[in-house]
Amino acid sequence: MRARPSDYELVIPHTLPAVLSLLGQEPGVWLPIAGGTDVMVQYAAGKLGRRKLVSIWNLPELRRIEVFAAEIQIGAGCTYTDLSEHEVVNREFTLLSRAARWTGGIANQNRGTIGGNIVNASPAADSLPALLVYEAELLLVSSRGERRVPYTGFHIDYRKTQIAPDELIRAICLKRRFSEYYAHARKVGARNAQAIAKVCLAALGRLADGVVEDIRLAMGSVAPVPLRLTGTERIVKGNRIDSWLVQLARTTATAEVQPIDDIRSSARYRAAVAGNLVAEYLEQLERSSN
Fold first, then answer.
1. pTM recorded for the entire structure
2. What superfamily in CATH does domain 182-288 come from?
3. What confidence tens digit (pLDDT) does each residue in 200-249 have?
């Protein structure tokens, strides 16, 4: 059943404090909408639960990328196009810029926002595994003030997060300390472009004298939430990469993911691909040091 426009109310405040005041007065009643790429799909299908929408599109506080000595802060209203075209994001956070280019088509990249991707909380979202391996932090803001929370643990269940009903994500913070890591991303889908991932991987690794000094592995579409493969990381860290370690990591990753059967793929296929992607990354990481 399609939605009727007359059933909905949309307001467009021109300042962030005005938006926060509205959310604070009626927590959980108003639905913030930025690019609308996810919201409008629900609306068109008649499945948009909340009837009061507040636009946060083009609020300047949410649309800037600020570069500091130790970190960058990406406004939650920045689009995928903003990310893919930003010099520092492209140079220092290649996993994120690559995910931005994977997300939908050009129209979606011009409208879809990184903050919307996070709060929509789809486990198949392309950008979220990158945020996990970069160990991002979120600046959450409300009329009560601002708080900074780790992105790790922000997703607590399928499409559920730690954000309060009166809060917005103001910015995503990324530490500028990954220049010596070997970065790798892979997306497995039904086609090369405009496909929702069957499985996707974001990985960072660093070797010292042939030993894995640090490794970060995260996946999408393999669990109810974007998943950091901490068990597999523990197996690999501190060891030299050889065929035995690659096979052990493959087996561990396959067991660590929690995929489901759905219209895009089977759980068995996703688990096998997850293990293969981890093995592929380790082999590339080992070659990168030669």
1. 0.95
2. CO dehydrogenase flavoprotein, C-terminal domain (3.30.390.50)
3. 999 999 999 999 999 999 999 999 999 999 999 999 999 999 999 999 99
